[in-house]
Amino acid sequence: MPLSTGSAILAACLLIIGLISVQMEVQNVHSGVRVRDLLREREQKVEILRKLDMEYNTQIAPDSLERDLPDDYRTEEGYPDNGRSAAGKKPGGERVSRTR
Amino acid sequence: MKSQPPEVSPAKSSPGLQARSGALWFFTISVTLVFLLLGVRLFYIQVLGHEDHLARARSGIGRTDSVPAYPGDLRTSDGVILARSETAWNMGLDLRPLSGDQVQSVVNTASETLGYSQSRRRERLGDAVRRKANRRTYANIGRRVDDSSRDMVRESLDRQLGPALRKKTLVVDRLTRRIYPKNDFLCHVIGVTSHDGTGQAGLELTLSSWLEPRSGMRRVITDAREQFRFYSPETVEVAPINGYDIYLTIDSKAQSILEEELQLGIRKHRAESGLGVLMNCKTGSILAMASSPVFDPNEFHRYPPGILAEKRKNRVIENVYEIGSVIKPFIAAAALETGVVSRDEKIWGGGRFHRIGGRRLEDVSNHGPITVEEAVVFSSNIGMGILGMKLGRDRLIEALGRFGFCRKTGIRLPGEGKGKHTPREQWNDIYSTTSVSMGYEVQISPIQLVTAFASLVNGGYLVRPRLVDKYVRDDEIIRNPPHLVGHTVTEETSAMMRKILHRIVDEGTGRYLKMKGFEFGGKTGTADMDPLYTKKDYLASFEAFAPLDDPEVVILVMIEKPRAGKYYGGSVAGPVVARVLRRYFGIAALPEFERLKFKGW
């Protein structure tokens, strides 16, 4: 094989290798940026989730539930009575039998 | 004769050709050698020295960014979140690219977007203008704002300055801020954190090493101007670790009940302040702890310093009192335990006044001849004075130590008061002995009192009061088990004391607190709070345990300086205790239960 042909093939190979390297670097940058976006997105979602979790937790806290009880479920002194008042008042509602 | 063209001699042309060919070969070999060397070098760089060169390359073209982690939550035993951290942003302006007018308009826009009040807007504007005039480079426009506020400010400044200038001027720093979703609920126990998230008081201070997160690290590839280019997918080098979520022993419902009833009692009797604590008497777990006045940890920086110090004080832990008659069961237990008297032994023949040495002792009323038991049941000062004299100085001091008085309990809260009693060398055998037997000349913190009271009714086991139940992070759970400190009385003495304390509620000074269908025991106390004992200011106390047969909880309520007329422990603090017990044990939910009407309520 003439030298010139060999040189041409070598040059072409080097060119291809160079192009592939550049392409790989571009891919690397793209995936890096995507990773950054995904990480930011995840952090934002975690933040939102934590806020919602806290809000829900506060709403279902036993003391909050007791404070927000409807009047029907309260005794004369304002304490919860496990729904006995409401059950007794509603027509057809289950009446809790008194224990002696 | 025709001349022959000269014959080109091969020998003559071959030297040039050979020379060119040689040069070509030399060039080819040289180039090949160069490429071979390059190849060898590349092999060395890419394969043999890959890691080393990668690290060197990264160190030159990147920076390390911190990956945020969250501090742990504080939660009640039933999971209610008491404190949680969320991401917040500090927003500021780089003043250099902006003119004076631009600074004013930008600060105005930002303040408007963040919804600041007029006074706060003026304050921010004045600060920024002053800084610009003084050639300072940075002015703060918003502290600890949330994500949506940050985005709104960005958008409004984009419209005003354009994205390019906005990017140059707006500086945003990430941080975490502590949120207390239930505001003043359990505020004295939780405590507060400073702006930078450092614990300043309460559990936020003592548990800071558990709550603290460890931020991660991530290499960021940057360009020559140190601007962000990209994350490599493999560049998370140190993963962030959140702090431990800490589950307290506090029961949210019990806490809510205690806080409500304590406030009600304080308002009803126009008292200056008050405190209450509910404890599991077997494990030492604090189920509820309240102190009044209260503060909102979310807004603590807005209180004036003097007022904040008063509001922030956890009276259960930090204060020490001359507790008065609530000490009497302990003195009686010590007397029974040491055998100097028996339960049914008559110690006083009757009357309202009695003189011991040079000291005149007085009872509220004449109870007639009384036994040791009746001295406690009717809270007789004379009876207790006599009992104290029978015990003597050394045994009294030893008893105080055995019950853990005048010694820190070791509860994980800062600023615990130790208390003190008259030192042995200054002890007056008449005055000190009779005073200590009635709860004077000895200062005791409420947490010491309730811990000792728990041991009195649980069989004599002195347990360390505990606030933390467990530390949780992902799948890791670290429990904080109960800790036995020592023994105070025998099972027999403890059983005897339970009966005596029940009699107090049945027929003694706490008889107005009797609840039909629910048996409990307790001791009233009314102490003169004035340093000169002028009987102007009182400390009304009530300590109790329930249920009677198998005590589960002990409770202590103290109301300081009631000013609505009543001041006895049985009529001021007692009803608070009874109402808390009734609600805690769900007695109000029994429809057949006779509604409890306390005298004066």
Can you characterise this structure?
- Chain A is built from 3 helices and no strands.
- Residues 87-100 of chain A have low confidence and may be disordered.
- With 100 residues, chain A is mainly alpha-helical.
- Chain B has 601 residues and is an alpha+beta fold.
- Chain B has 20 helices and 24 strands.
- In chain B, helix 3 runs antiparallel to helix 5, helix 5 (147-161) crosses helix 6 and helix 10 packs antiparallel against helix 20.
- The N and C termini of chain B lie far apart (159 Å).
- The longest helix of chain B has 39 residues, at 10-48.
- Chain A binds chain B through residues 3, 7, 10, 28-29, 31-33, 35-36, 39, 43-44, 47, 50-51, 53-55, 57-58, 61-63, 66-67, 75-77, 79-82, 84, 96, 98-100, and chain B through 24, 28, 31, 35, 68, 70, 78-81, 84, 86-87, 147, 179, 181-182, 185, 221, 228-233, 252-253, 255-257, 582-583, 586, 588-592, 595.
